[in-house]
Design a protein that fits this description.
The protein is an all-alpha fold and 435 residues long. It is 77% helix and 0% strand. It has helices spanning 2-13, 21-41, 44-55, 59-87, 89-107, 113-129, 132-142, 147-163, 165-175, 177-196, 230-234, 237-267, 272-297, 302-321, 326-355, 360-389, 393-412, 431-434. It is globular, with a radius of gyration of 21 Å. The two termini are 29 Å apart.
Length: 435
């Protein structure tokens, strides 16, 4: 049984006898996401604890900054998608890394709520242009048969950023949050900009083919057989159902990015180091979910995976809302981490399978206008209820119920059909495999 498995792995990684260049792009994408995750997204809760002590700002104020950043990213989404489709990802990634690094430098100097919001907005703009959405445009053009696997491997960079949160907490306590932010900005500029230079829009630009296969008739449209324009995609129920399902998923994820560490330190009496360890534990399960989700997503229904994961998100939130022991927190970490990891790659692969890659950046950009509702609403909803009640439990329980609606959205998102008279990019396709 090992020989077919090894043969399949060899075919995936080196279909022409050498490592397919697309996998080097996956590696670069993973490292870019690691930077953003480690320095900002997964460590924001630790910054909140220290800045709340220094400035005394409310939980709603900190959640509002996160929501403001997500609003900015969501509004930017369609423009960003058009720019990436037109000019390619490398230029947009480079601009994003510059803004992200400069934003950290500005962040290290904030002393008012207004300057905090401005610095946070600049960092959000940079991380959006220089991060996930732009990277995914490249990957869906380079991969078709192994798309879920490629996206999953790239997203492991984000997960490994969670492993590094305890190291960042050590830096925060040793040097203070201002110095840590300053050093983070320097690191982004020194490392992030070179990291994005190998990224290319399409494999044909450097003489490669989709998946590295000797014959790839869909080399210019790596979209699993269908090629929708953005307008055609927006006219399908699948676009809206996937977008709202994704928004609900990020309702839970974003709320926990902002409030998990404060919840553990304030209501379960964790030290900052212990809370960071809990984040790292969650990340272990997230990586396991990504490994299994990437494999399964290339083989079974992505919609089914997403629906099950939404139910696991909800179950994890219920466990966290009632948690009273380390074992409870570990159980939450397993449920939420596995769901987050397995679902994440499907968000990109499912859209690419359904709508193709030729206008993927623009389609993903318009979808971000819906998805931002979740990334904005989750942190503010939970933060507001925590300020009013003194507990995060009510907010977490409410989000658990909404996750059931997310599962329903994915279950109903049937593969779309091109309008009559529109030519298929090629016969067959992956959309049937995805549903």
């Amino acid at each position: 049984m090992s020989r077919p498995s090894l043969g399949g792995l060899r075919q995936m990684l080196a279909p022409r006898g050498h490592i397919y260049r697309g996998w080097w792009l996956v590696l670069a994408s993973a490292n870019v996401q690691l930077l953003g995750s480690m320095l900002w997204m997964q460590s924001y809760g630790a910054y909140v604890v220290l800045m709340e002590d220094e400035f005394g700002w409310s939980k709603t104020a900190f959640a509002g900054a996160f929501a403001f950043a997500r609003l900015e990213s969501g509004i930017l989404g369609p423009v960003q998608g058009i720019l990436v489709d037109r000019f390619g990802p490398r230029l947009i990634l480079t601009i994003g890394m510059i803004l992200f690094g400069v934003g950290f430098l500005f962040f290290s100097q904030v002393d008012t709520l207004l300057t905090f919001y401005l610095a946070f907005g600049l960092m959000a703009l940079g991380s959006s242009l220089g991060g996930f959405a732009t990277l995914m445009v490249s990957l869906v053009n380079w991969f078709s048969r192994y798309r879920s696997t490629a996206v999953a491997v790239s997203q492991m960079g984000y997960s490994f950023g969670g492993f590094c949160v305890p190291l960042l907490v050590i830096a925060l306590e040793a040097f203070g949050w201002r110095t840590t932010a300053l050093l983070s900005g320097i690191l982004v500029l020194a490392v992030g900009i070179p990291l994005v230079q190998p990224i290319r829009h399409r494999p044909a630009e450097i003489g490669e083919t989709v998946d590295g296969l000797p014959e790839a008739p869909a080399a210019t449209v790596a979209g699993g057989g269908l090629s929708f324009t953005a307008r055609q995609a927006l006219a399908t129920p699948a676009f809206w159902l996937i977008s709202f399902g994704h928004a609900i998923a990020l309702l839970a994820v974003a709320a926990l990015l902002v409030h998990l560490i404060p919840h553990l330190t304030e209501q379960l009496d964790y030290s900052l180091e212990a809370a960071a360890t809990a984040v790292a534990t969650l990340t272990v399960f997230q990586v396991l979910g990504q490994m299994s989700g990437g494999f399964l997503g290339d083989r079974i229904s992505k919609r089914l995976i997403c629906s099950v994961c939404m139910l696991l998100h909800g179950a994890g939130l219920l466990v966290l809302a009632q948690a009273s022991s380390t074992l409870d927190v570990a159980f939450f970490a397993a449920l939420h981490g596995l769901a987050w990891g397995a679902r994440g790659p499907q968000m990109i692969a499912l859209r690419a399978d359904y709508f193709g890659a030729s206008a993927f950046g623009t389609i993903l950009g318009f979808s971000s206008l819906i998805v931002m509702l979740g990334t904005m609403g989750g942190p503010v909803f939970v933060g507001y209820l925590a300020d009013r009640s003194g507990s995060y439990a009510t907010g977490f329980t409410g989000l658990a119920g909404v996750c059931v609606l997310g599962a329903l959205c994915f279950a109903l998102a049937a593969p779309p059909k091109l309008p009559i008279g529109t030519e298929r990019a090629r016969a067959g396709g992956a959309s049937g495999r995805s549903g």
